[in-house]
Amino acid sequence: MEFFLTPWILFITLIVAFLPYFLVFAFKLQSSGDKTLPPGSMGWPIMGETIEFLFGNPENFVFKRMKKYSPHIFKTKILGEKTAVICGPKGHKFLFSNEQKLFTVFRPHSMQKLFRSYQAKAPAPSEPEAKILRSPSFLKPEALVRYLEKMDSITQQQMQSYWEGKDTVKVSPLAKTLTLSLACRFFLGTDDPERIAKLVRNFDDITVGMHSITVNFPGTIFHRAKKAAAAIRKELIAVIKEKRAAISISGSPLQDILSHMIVASDTSGKHMTEAEISDKMMGLLTAGYSTIATAITFFMKYVGERPDIYKKILDEQMGVASAKKDGELLQWEDIQKMKYSWNVVYEVMRLTPPLQGTFREAIADFTYAGYTIPKGWKIYWTVSTTNKNPEYFPNPERFDPSRYEDENEIPPFTFVPFGGGPRMCPGKEYARLAILTFIHNVMKRFKWELEFPKERVIGDMMPIPENGLPVRLATL
């Protein structure tokens, strides 16, 4: 039996441990009296409202407080930090337009401890990192074009190995295996299936532990995440050693981000240790793994519930396939023809965001909606303040890809699945290619039915079907 049986056991334990301090903090909280702060509650001393945020669904947490306090901004205390939640399209615009002016990235304590080289605030990139970020070789459309054929080839191999010939498959674990295989090939330059298989379970533990209470006892979420991070770091350091040796001996071609980072580090005069490089790569792999797998999983769920939408996607994808020669891999122009399929993915991400939100830190006092947020406070940004608002999305619980046929009908800053401004997700185009390549390959092969149409969705910051989304396959 795990130690971490329920969040409330942890909560009671913390109350007992910190009881001498509770009344002092409560008194300070009541006597602060700063009326310029936004409305809201700091919750319990020490813990704040962390328990409800992490285990009561972040989306519900935000909606409840928007209704109770303000649809524009409210204050809270989560993950040990005084936090302002800025809501709605005006809030999105304000945040995106003030990056590095009023805000910088903040990483919760759990992430800082899992990724040991991470700092609370995102510093300016080191020279080796800056070279990678400036390089035209990665993450830009013109560069990803060259990777698209490999992405299609890997996806076909995965279909042949894990999907074809099966009556039933569990989508969620297979989506994770696929997206981690793609990420390992793209970022690390490796497609060793045994190595990738060892990494999958550990990455699951990390993604859950990135937003958790940092209680490091056996059986807790954070303890499992720490063990997983250590295992991944060990494996990545082995890959780095192999890659560095290959580069020094034969000058192997730089066809992946890891090789570029090693060379940039070794030639810049600002040498990064293998542990530092492994942490950077672990962060990239995490970003290129879990959110894409989530989008693929819920694509299968929502489309499996709607035969009418399945038919429209099938017509589009068969149109793409019919224009290609036998054995010809996907090209850039093929992806551009998949407009309806991508609208479906947009609607998937609106209803079930692959990532609930991220944090910023105020680098100066600022005023928003008539309230003052002090320097050092944290800002929680989340897509959920607009995604299901009927003002912007009529009948918001209905799955309706036609919403995106005319982009001008969607008010600005109401649908921002990849963020915006200088911090817009740099992997947006990579994610689009990976998801559409999967859709093309699954649609060419199968029809499917959900094994459990009412399957419960668990997970808070990272949603997942409780049983892994088993589906019954029928070959076309």
From TrEMBL:
Residues noted as binding heme in the record, renumbered to the chain: 425
Record has Iron as a keyword: yes
Transmembrane segments: 6-27, 282-303
Cofactor(s) demanded: heme
Primary localization class, coarse: membrane
UniProt membrane topology term: Single-pass membrane protein
Keywords: Heme, Iron, Membrane, Metal-binding, Monooxygenase, Oxidoreductase, Transmembrane, Transmembrane helix
Acyltransferase in keyword set: no
Highest taxon of the lineage: Eukaryota
GO molecular function: heme binding; iron ion binding; monooxygenase activity; oxidoreductase activity, acting on paired donors, with incorporation or reduction of molecular oxygen
Location relative to the cell: Membrane
GO cellular component: membrane
Family the entry assigns: Belongs to the cytochrome P450 family.
Name under which the protein is recorded: Cytochrome P450
Species annotation: Manihot esculenta
